[in-house]
## 1
Amino acid sequence: QEQLVESGGGMVQAGDSLRLSCAHSERILSTYGVAWFRRAPGKEREFVASIKWNGGRTYYTDSVKGRFTISRDNAKNTVYLQMTSLKPDDTAVYYCAAEVTPLIWDYWGQGTQVTVSS
């Protein structure tokens, strides 16, 4: 299957903002639930945020609530993760995933690196 494509990562300082994008050439991102995950160095992959296919419900891990916002533009087949007030602990490779099979995140991107310096 074709991969999702993440972009928007980079190196920033604490307190800065970044917006990650997750795109796909077909209608996967406008049809299914989408989530962002991250894997920090030496740690397990963790859930960050998710959004239902119609954008009606969003979920966040506690550590990013109030700082990160997940949204989607179904017309552009793109999902975003707006990250503000970034902290060094947010440093990780960020992945987007789609729930094509119910209850399974089975479409993944290659990841985009976010590095936050203090």
## 2
Amino acid sequence: QVHIVESGGGLVQPGGSLRLSCAASGRSFSAYAMGWYRPALGKQRELVAIITSSGTANYADSVKGRFTISRDSGKNTVYLQMNSLKPEDTAVYYCKAVDYNAFTYWGQGTQVTVSS
């Protein structure tokens, strides 16, 4: 069984920063890719950012230049540094891990609220 644990959400003022962390664990588990998603209109969840084991990262256009995803592959841990936060970034952020057999695992989500 694979466990996904997220942390780092909270309340921040517009223009502020937050850092989310996500750790995946499980016997013999190794993540090919890990990323962050959030709910969006018309979609169950939209991609925010994702990074592969080789370090290739992709971002939603709405967060490019503001968010940075990084990964500690040895620990199956991913981080999302969020700067210049906007009220429209308010959402529950979900961590996703994909293993080398393409099985997908989701965390429970962490709330990010951007408000003055």
## 3
Amino acid sequence: QVQLMESGGGLVQAGGSHRLSCAASGSDFRLVAMGWYRQAPGKERELVATMTSGGSINYGDSVKGRFTISRDYVKTTVYLLMNSLKAEDTAVYYCNLRGYYYTDALDAWGQGTLVTVSP
């Protein structure tokens, strides 16, 4: 089984930068992808950024050019560097891991961390 622990949420001023981290713990799983999604009040959860085990990256349209996802392969930790933050980036950010636990598909979610961007 896998557990995800997010950290780094908080209050940030518009135009500033902030970094989120997500550490995966567990064993005997094969990673397919890790990444971030977010959900703003009254809105559906949306893609922020994902990275496959092979290093392929996909960004949501609203964060392209401002956010960067990276991964520590040894620690199985994924980071999200957020630059040029806007008020509309305010949301609960969720870490996601997809993979396999032996032959069973995994789709694990963190508890979420709130990022509030003040105008």
